[in-house]
Amino acid sequence: MQIGEVNDDKLKEACGVLGIYNSCEDAGLGRTAYYGLYALQHRGQESAGIAVTSGNGIKYHKDMGLVSEVFNDEIIDGLCGKIAIGHVRYSTSGSSTLINAQPLVVKYKKGSLAVAHNGNLINAAEVKQELEEQGAVFQTTVDSEVIAFLIAREQSEDISKAAIECAKKIKGSYAIVMMTENELVGMRDPKGIRPLSIGKLNGSYVIASESCAFDTIGAEFIRDVEPGEIVIVNEDGLKSFKFNDDNISSLCIFEFVYFARPDSRIEGKSVHMARMEAGRQLAKESPVEADLVIGVPDSGTVSAMGYAEASGLPFGIGLIKNRYIGRTFIQPSQESRIIGVKLKLNVVKDVIKDKRVVMVDDSIVRGTTSGQIVRLLKESGAKQVHVRVSSPPIMHSCYFGIDTSARKELIGARQKVDEIRQHIGADSLNYLSLEGLIKSTGISEQKFCSGCFCGKYPLEIPMESKEHLFEKR
Amino acid sequence: MQIGEVNDDKLKEACGVLGIYNSCEDAGLGRTAYYGLYALQHRGQESAGIAVTSGNGIKYHKDMGLVSEVFNDEIIDGLCGKIAIGHVRYSTSGSSTLINAQPLVVKYKKGSLAVAHNGNLINAAEVKQELEEQGAVFQTTVDSEVIAFLIAREQSEDISKAAIECAKKIKGSYAIVMMTENELVGMRDPKGIRPLSIGKLNGSYVIASESCAFDTIGAEFIRDVEPGEIVIVNEDGLKSFKFNDDNISSLCIFEFVYFARPDSRIEGKSVHMARMEAGRQLAKESPVEADLVIGVPDSGTVSAMGYAEASGLPFGIGLIKNRYIGRTFIQPSQESRIIGVKLKLNVVKDVIKDKRVVMVDDSIVRGTTSGQIVRLLKESGAKQVHVRVSSPPIMHSCYFGIDTSARKELIGARQKVDEIRQHIGADSLNYLSLEGLIKSTGISEQKFCSGCFCGKYPLEIPMESKEHLFEKR
Amino acid sequence: MQIGEVNDDKLKEACGVLGIYNSCEDAGLGRTAYYGLYALQHRGQESAGIAVTSGNGIKYHKDMGLVSEVFNDEIIDGLCGKIAIGHVRYSTSGSSTLINAQPLVVKYKKGSLAVAHNGNLINAAEVKQELEEQGAVFQTTVDSEVIAFLIAREQSEDISKAAIECAKKIKGSYAIVMMTENELVGMRDPKGIRPLSIGKLNGSYVIASESCAFDTIGAEFIRDVEPGEIVIVNEDGLKSFKFNDDNISSLCIFEFVYFARPDSRIEGKSVHMARMEAGRQLAKESPVEADLVIGVPDSGTVSAMGYAEASGLPFGIGLIKNRYIGRTFIQPSQESRIIGVKLKLNVVKDVIKDKRVVMVDDSIVRGTTSGQIVRLLKESGAKQVHVRVSSPPIMHSCYFGIDTSARKELIGARQKVDEIRQHIGADSLNYLSLEGLIKSTGISEQKFCSGCFCGKYPLEIPMESKEHLFEKR
Amino acid sequence: MQIGEVNDDKLKEACGVLGIYNSCEDAGLGRTAYYGLYALQHRGQESAGIAVTSGNGIKYHKDMGLVSEVFNDEIIDGLCGKIAIGHVRYSTSGSSTLINAQPLVVKYKKGSLAVAHNGNLINAAEVKQELEEQGAVFQTTVDSEVIAFLIAREQSEDISKAAIECAKKIKGSYAIVMMTENELVGMRDPKGIRPLSIGKLNGSYVIASESCAFDTIGAEFIRDVEPGEIVIVNEDGLKSFKFNDDNISSLCIFEFVYFARPDSRIEGKSVHMARMEAGRQLAKESPVEADLVIGVPDSGTVSAMGYAEASGLPFGIGLIKNRYIGRTFIQPSQESRIIGVKLKLNVVKDVIKDKRVVMVDDSIVRGTTSGQIVRLLKESGAKQVHVRVSSPPIMHSCYFGIDTSARKELIGARQKVDEIRQHIGADSLNYLSLEGLIKSTGISEQKFCSGCFCGKYPLEIPMESKEHLFEKR
User: Counting Cβ atoms within 10 Å, is residue A365 exposed (0-12), middle (13-18) or buried (19+)?
Assistant: First the structure.
């Protein structure tokens, strides 16, 4: 689960990336990168890494764990220089996966290169095979290594040309931040599936998965990297290259549903405001006679406020997240599973007692936790519990960097809404329509990938990928 | 700071205590105690401990750290038995203080004894001296050791008599849970300064600092232990003894302001509801022309909702707590202090931009963080920031178990309200009146100790205590 | 096992103690104590602790682990002052026993007191009961706590008087180092069962279990503390008190056999020289026709050299200890036990091949390892293996601070020598006679306790102790 | 230093390698590899790793630390399969070097490959450049990665052909153990500079740097891998390929001086016996009138015995290594350096007092420790100290896998013998002649590389290497 998230029945974002080009050599570069990564922590809790250069080789540190666990003062102070890139990766387990932590740092014929990637290359196996035929050896299973090899084999002195050639070979979703000893590179796939933004700090540029990183380090948001765009930052400033003309944006709509931090802006829209609006839409689409609207913290709270506002029902805090949820607490035995929810969520009985409660959550993936929360509310005195979900049922796998698990685990793919309602013990259950969700963002439908809801993807998925689904990479 | 609390400028509760008497020998006793302690974690994050007995000696485990850090499956499974007591203690640092972790477990002439204490004995030094004259040696600096010696020197076979004699000797605040090899004992000082409640679980009794622990382990709240009451639970059930007749309750009002968990009930009142009401009172006492009410998470949120409701202003989520606040993140250097607040709090610019904002917090102790949050809001686009505090200025030290630090550090004791306003850079600043606070609880004024606000204490404070103030113990 | 010892079938010494009185306040006091304790590490590997005073309270640090693990620069630098005492304790496992680590530091009516003890009080239970009747509570199971209470209950201002009264109450073996805020105290039981020596450093005094600690810290050996003697070191120098007149020394003979470090001197005799001589005696008592004498490292090597010298046979290095024996290496499964010995001992095949080998070891306790070494030698090409043990069979339990385990585990108590020979697969087996062993020390027979060999003890053992044998304390 | 070595003024061996081909799939494979690596621990204490295959992919675990620290039961039990290779690397510090731990495991066009290397490629930079021109990217700085790329670019299906082509490209010293999913490969440079041996276990083959690993795991020594030989072990048994005809052996003579474990056999000769003989030669070359011969433990002991035997002087144990030397003990301050030696070495005063002592050590590198030991002996009562070194002065850097540090740090390169004598405060100092050293091994002079003593190397050293000297790799 995302640590600190009480309802762990969520989709998992794969990664967050960050790049900083300093206007001048700076001893505090590592620290700035650290704070920026810290702001992107919600995009990945498995491992964290920062690489820096002063123009002569690349230093880096990466390890399994949260940003706050991976770095300490001594390490950060050693990461000084002119350019930095950083990466956070989502939480699985096992130290053996350290080899897969990013940024990936390599030496190649033109010097040192560091690569950080968010997304999923759907033709990685194919490209790897081609590279192996040419003598390549792979030490990791991350796409970044494929990207590094593609960059390395180009003869051109010009990193922009190498990046364009690389982009021509790879298919899938990618928001890439790269660094040579002299340049910072940002690169976004032709569909713009994963987000990537440009900011300005002290007269120079920063690149990050989300704008919230800019706010934390005091940078100013400039614009998103466009689909099919490569930006190169060096001492001459920022240059842009388009490697693909007919780019039709297909931004992952789940960034608005759950992944992005509420204080981020994506495609010019406030994520928080979109979620509030989704709650309002939900109220319009699926009203219910009730006494109170509550949210499942943290991610359901805002939509619950929107629902309350639009429905005219009072908003209340019926569930409070325990502040001390740690990674290691002792799991209850099978027979007392509900205690697991009680440890994470404190019910304010006086708020919900004898009430008909509307409980708003942002999504239901496997359906494991929702039922426990409904039961907890009822045991605590709620007369009725009406579940409202501020996004549609998840019915299809994602091939572009989200861990939707196997399709067979998706309750929305297996059961009808009323079956799910019975499963979770709710008095009523409604999902927001895809139209309603899109409307809440204020962005036109064509600009989104909503494959997990509707099964239509912006790229053709190779059969092989369909079989393997999402292998953690 | 309380881990997970973004505004660390808070008073510190000293301890939480817990006791469980099983209806029968139970392998899951340690686990139940663990979950109960976990629910009391907000009352102390320094150390945690559980002691158990099966009627023949006492086993225990205690260490520095959070409940989830101190125990693991193996340890908990080893803590089986018939009676358990537990303790959490507030966070300072230093392994040398492990000796002060509780419960304190000793052997004395009648067998084994374990003691857990929340509160502060104001005559501890005096009693210690008397005991030392009789040959006692002290290995810790906690009051529990004094209590253990007082129990041990009694000749009576009857633990209730020993407890009564002990109670006659000690002065100050105490909510004590003790355990012999056969009995569970709860004991609350004659003024009832610190809370202590009785619950029922599987036909037997549990005792805890707050009722939220009962909810977590599935116990039913029965009643508070009364001021000046000793309850003894053994195989014959629960017996009550009063050791002091003229008990006038002087419950610590700060339990309602900040300490207690919102889902607890104290003196029959919901803490959450009282805080909501305090917000309403605050709106009535100190209205302001504004566009939006926001709370400082987590503790200011509920009062902010109450303020919004009573004032008719919209409630918004303008500040979101970072989910990944850890104990170890790298501190920003002096010149960029505000980044420290930014790491903990994410501002939703779109919510507060160009707004006149009412920012509600529950208390201001030293005034260190409030100013940073005001500045952050203004930098993020708030037109005005009106700070409203849902309790009065803290002007006096506490001698009854709360770490108010030295009086000279209390900004409320040093500066007038308008000076504080200037200090924190707010456009206006108002505190809730003591009357308003008391009214919000629905409990009569006489039943509270509000010494930290008004300087009147339920017991005379020895000069010595006044000088030493609160030493961590 | 003692870490680094390849034959772990050894008796276990319980503790080492150390005390330093500085001629002046010294920032390096902790460091000196650390190095001194490090030199006594062979006497106990379970826990280590140092307490210091500057005349106003006592600071201390103690934890489970080796001296080098328990302390670091920061901790040691914090342990500055005028007087220090230290303690090492033998290796068992379990963090719960931290409470039993020493020195034990207490506050009592005259201030602070720290106590470190090597030995075993055979009337501890009785004394504890008496103290409990007077209201004492015990938090540990170590004898030091009993000693602290006995000191604390004395009214005299004079620590020497309190120490004498304490000495009158306790029975058994004790080499005690204590510290008030102004005095360092050394104290040895009337039989002098455990060793304790006085040294001089920079014009002031140090006290330690063994003289090797003096060599390490650059102190000069002065004399042993005498049986029944108390020495008090303060700013006026060293004063001696005898609390018992008819003290007949009964020094534990096993100090010469195995416990003491070879470079220590006890009762004016070199331990190394005594072991060399024991080897010579063994050769005289039990010669054998052979080609080579080897020792089982480390403790058998010196006696092997003595055996070689006296027998005229060549001494060879047939077994080399692995330098990297750690505490944690993966244990071989049952069926391949011999690999466990191979990991600890490297056989130099070219040395022993086709040879008739005399293998000398210092003692056999349970007989578990010796057979594996014999088998290893034979598998490596030795034609014959004649085992010679430089001490008699251990046939009786120790009640004075040595862990001889239960008597039934002592192979010498269960089997005749020839049975043992068969058990370990040796071609011949001989033990040194008790007379031979005593002769090798150059000290008269009357001055030793050799209870583990002969069953005669210097004090009458209470039945209770006989039943409980040696419980780890 | 090598942990557990008291005189840390030693040359550092770079690595140890190990390979096991099972006759059948074996759950205990990881355990066997673990024990084998444990026996090679003296060849490298920085990091340890084991890779295994069952014919379908390669699993591995590697980390910084000793073999006993890197692996635990769970990890080892997960490393089951048919083929294993292992590697230990010498001790530097810094977690960032984890990337350099071996075996290096990669995927290439024919599947998975694991490589472990002992030695130093003197043309690594050149080969890397050539590979980079072809598009290679390097993630580490170890030669194993160069080797992996060379193997990967070969088209042949036959691993022996790929290995031969690889061998034709690389220059320098190498004892390589590699593993595909079906074959185990051993490979030794044409000069045979680093040792590599073949053993037999349960009807199949094992390969290791030293034969002592065979003894530990119960394998039988067969023969050394010959210089310029590649051996391939698969289900058809072992096949040998020679890739270079005019191989004149140039075995590193320092293996006999210090690196190899005494119980190993190299080139058919016992290392222990050679060291004993070196001591005898030393006595013949450099006799001295004295009373006693002692060795500096551990490595000087055997030569001291040889010296004693040949000189007719008695051998004594005057210095005993402390059993508890850990990696972390607190360093003494500058002014009391000698305490550092005292913590590692216990002087048996009664042995050396008033004696003219011959102190034998195996080598002197920087000359830092020897002087402290001489001083310690004199302070402890030795009348004279005559230092005898059982190898010649080290005057030249090594380019073949030994860390001789910069030449300017070698005391033998900077000072004449008598200056060194004065530096260390010895009454006399003599080194063994190169002739004497060679004679002691019983191997002809031509078969050795003795470049560090005489400056003549078996291969021409590129200027570049001369400048960079030995960079840790």
Answer: buried
Can you tell me the mean pLDDT for C215-226?
Answer: 94
pLDDT at B144: 93
Query: pLDDT, tens digit, for every residue of C123-148?
Result: 999 999 999 999 999 999 889 999 99
Count of domains for chain D? 2
Q: Is residue A454 part of a domain?
A: no
User: Which residues of chain C are within 8 Å of residue B138 when distances are taken between CB atoms?
Assistant: 106-108
Q: How far apart are CA B469 and CA B466, in angstroms?
A: 5
Q: Specify which residues A304 forms β-bridges with.
A: none
Task: Report the predicted TM-score, pTM, of the whole model to 2 decimal places.
Answer: 0.90
Q: Are residues A287 and A234 in the same domain?
A: no
pLDDT bracket for residue D161 (50, 70, 90): very high
List of residues 6+ apart from A238 with CB closer than 8 A: A198, A205, A231, A232
Please give the residue of chain A at the shortest CA–CA distance from B269: A350
D135 in a structural domain: yes
Residues A435 and A312 both lie in one domain? yes
Tell me: do D206 and D316 sit in the same domain.
no
Give the length of chain A.
473
* Range of weakest confidence among B108-122, D328-342, D441-455: D328-342
Interface test with A, best of D112, D134, D137 (most A CBs within 10 A): D137
Assess B149–C contact: CB distance below 8 Å, yes or no: yes
CATH number at residue C56: 3.60.20.10
Size of interface C-D (CB pairs under 8 A): 162
Asked whether residue C222 falls in the same domain as residue C370, the answer is no
Q: Are D228 and D344 members of one domain?
A: no
CB contact under 8 A, D138 and A106: yes
**Range(s) of the domain holding residue D127:** 12-250
| Shared-domain flag, residues D286 and D186 | no
Nearest to B106 among C138, C148, C149 (CB): C138
Q: Is the dihedral of CA A127, A131, A133, A137 positive or negative?
A: negative
Catalytic residues of B: 15
Q: How far apart are CA A303 and CA A281, in angstroms?
A: 9
What is the ipTM metric for this complex?
0.91
The pLDDT of residue D206 is above 90: yes
**Residue spans of beta strands (DSSP E) within B192-330:** 197-201, 204-208, 220-224, 229-234, 237-242, 251-252, 265-266, 269-270, 292-295, 319-321
- Alpha-carbon distance D150 to nearest alpha carbon in chain C (angstroms): 36
Measure CA D27 to chain center: 30
Lowest mean pLDDT among B116-130, B337-351, B442-456, D100-114: B337-351
C173 shares a domain with C45: yes
Look up residue B397 and give its two tokens: 């030290």
- Same domain as C52, residue C21: yes
pLDDT class of B302 with cuts at 50, 70, 90: very high
Task: List the single range of A249-258, B323-332, C2-11, D412-421 with lowest mean pLDDT.
Answer: C2-11
Checking if the pLDDT of A444 tops 70, the result is: yes
* Average pLDDT rounded to a whole number, residues D131-146: 93
Tell whether B157 lies on the interface with C, counting CB pairs under 8 A: no
Instruction: For residue A297, give the H/E element and its range.
Output: none
**Chains contacting B (3+ CB pairs below 8 angstroms):** A, C
Is there a domain that residue B29 lies in?
A: yes
Interchain CB contact of A138 with D (< 8 Å) = yes
- Classify each residue of C310-325 as buried b or exposed e, where b means 16 or more C-beta atoms within 10 Å of its C-beta: bbebebbbbbbbbbbb
Q: Are D293 and D318 in contact, with CB atoms under 8 Å apart?
A: no
Does residue D448 fall inside a structural domain? no
Taking the Cβ of residue B177 and every Cβ of chain C, the question of whether any pair is shorter than 8 Å is answered with no
Lowest mean per-residue pLDDT among A4-8, A449-453, D61-65: A4-8
Query: Which CATH number characterizes residue A353's domain?
Result: 3.40.50.2020
Phi-psi category of A312—alpha, beta or left, where left has phi over 0 and alpha has psi -120 to 50?
Answer: left
